């Protein structure tokens, strides 16, 4: 065992993963997970209604509270790894957090997203204690789009690759292992069903097309409106009823299920549907329908040569939704389910391997 490995056995790693409706955290000692916790914010309406950077203190305090309740001192933490947010497009991999990245994330230079807070909170916690190194892996801006996928139909506008890259890649690699193949050998469609929904076409290790739910592409989801009729959007934009940021929030944070039912809690809505609410039944079925349509589009992108479809994210815990979705898509290829997400493990592996092997992290 080399010195780094020996030290690694005692290293405490803090993992921070802010999602649209929750902050997930975990602490590892060496390679063993000490605990993980999902701090749900779904009941904290006032907090979620705030701009992302204004949520920082609440989410940071929730993390500190969680560490305290597990008797872990911040000063014990030797490595911090966080979900990466909206910054300039980058290739897949593990990045060391630097000042340029923090500036882009904290000023929302490339847009607002809960994941912007991961590295920002990570660096604050590091600076407040022992300057632990802070990494991110596979941020939401991983860009492997094929050139053809970038066109919009308006010369001055290009599509952007923004999606649940971390969980899509982690789930795809897990599926590849289950299929006894390398990720780079397969063509897969990954359907991430979270607060946002993204459906990616993975061709031989690259996500060559994916809907960007932050820019009004693809299915509606618990919090995103998805594709909207552009004429109606223009009318709302010029109605005088909304500022630019209010309109963004209307379509991106408060769209989808939240627009219909003022909650993005799919599990709770499913219970109300089961109790006989027919409107909820229709809207949930419509969300499944639109998701299936996006998967069909990605099957075309892969020219029908699809090894498997992978359904993942929080909503994949619903066997009813998975069954309804499968009814539409099982003709494409076998459907594999990885409910929830493996972002915590993916963030840990990316940072710990980089740290433990002395490999240079990528530079932003
Ligand atoms: N058993 C379940 N049945 C139905 N829906 C569920 C279940 N468990 C969780 N969900 C739903 O999953 C959604 C949250 O998913 P997830 O935790 O993947 O999202 P997130 O991390 O907050 O956001 P994102 O994935 O977009 O970053 C919520 O709508 C929640 O109600
Ligand atoms: C992860 C970026 C996409 C979304 O949140 O909808």
From TrEMBL:
Which reaction equation describes what this protein catalyses?
Answer: butanoate + ATP = butanoyl phosphate + ADP
Q: Where in the cell is it found?
A: Cytoplasm
Q: Which PROSITE patterns match?
A: ACETATE_KINASE_1, ACETATE_KINASE_2
Q: Which UniProt keywords apply?
A: ATP-binding, Cytoplasm, Kinase, Nucleotide-binding, Transferase
- One MF annotation (Gene Ontology) recorded for this entry: acetate kinase activity
List the Pfam families. Acetate_kinase (PF00871)
Q: Where is the signal peptide?
A: none
UniProt cross-references to Gene3D superfamilies, sorted A to Z:
3.30.420.40
Q: What class of enzyme is it?
A: transferase
For this protein, the Enzyme Commission number is 2.7.2.7
Q: What biological processes does GO assign it?
A: acetate metabolic process
Which Gene Ontology terms of cellular component type are present? cytoplasm
Q: Which InterPro entries does the record match to this protein? A: Aliphatic_acid_kin_short-chain, Aliphatic_acid_kinase_CS, ATPase_NBD, Butyrate_kin
Report the family membership: Belongs to the acetokinase family.
Name of this chain's protein? Probable butyrate kinase
